[in-house]
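User: Here's a chain of 304 residues. Predict its fold as tokens.
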Amino acid sequence: MLDRLHKKPWIGLLGIGLGFLTQPLGHTVYTLIDKGFGDLYYLGAAGMAVVGTLLVWQGLKRAELPATLFGMLGGWFMWIGFFEFTFKFYAGLYSVPGYAVEPGVPNGYVAAPSANMLQATMPLMFALFILYGMFNLQTKCNFMRWFHRNLGFSPGMPTPDNHRSFARITAMEVLFVTWFCYLFWLYMIYFGTQQTGMNIIMSVYLAWTAWSLYLVWRAAKQIRAAAALRYGIGAGIVLWGAAEMPSHFGAYPEYWLHPFDYPVFNLIVGAIFVAGLVVIARPPVPAHKRGAGGGTLASGKAAA
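Assistant: Prediction complete.
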């Protein structure tokens, strides 16, 4: 049964499922640290940042699949520790208001102070996107290569045999895709509260959902665990936007933000995530290696 999960289309769907689940669980972890540490939340945040950094470091010299797993978990922890709690800390330090009210708009635009801090990072994210994405000679990212092809701009093909640091690449993907999706929806909500009302948000939401379903279809075509996981991380985070946005309009509660009120939901989600990690980390051993101490990719290290 487990061997079958490492075949098309299941391995791709497993990869996108893990990427998807990092988002609600990330909110849950954030809430647990925020409530559990109270005014000392920055200590919990620092711990997450350090652990995330060490996970990526540990993945740098490992084989492709374990490096991808370490990079995903490390990037996920680093986002919570370095990004989310940093926005909260400086929003409190500088008394950033939680409301940005536009004249003539009855309800204005409502957001947490940390979200307002996050919106201010848009130029920084865009600049890094250009330098590390658009101008990256070595990128093999399908998203980046699509831009290169369709804009008539190509920095050239990746250097043959260039060693790829899968842990670092995966961690960067987690950070940038999460960052982009946060900013995108914050700005869409902001402009959606202006004179054009909900028309903008609903149109964008339908397009986003169509894109998400396309990514699910593409993910189902993956045939290798490591590649499926790297593709699934970005695709799953995008898919999360399609699932989460209705909760902002009152379609259902945001269970992931209230783990103490909905413990069963969050425990089930956490258990599914851990089970998925275990399955994807233990690919089937090829028949010719069985009984020869071949082990699994998840325990291997990259050759020197």
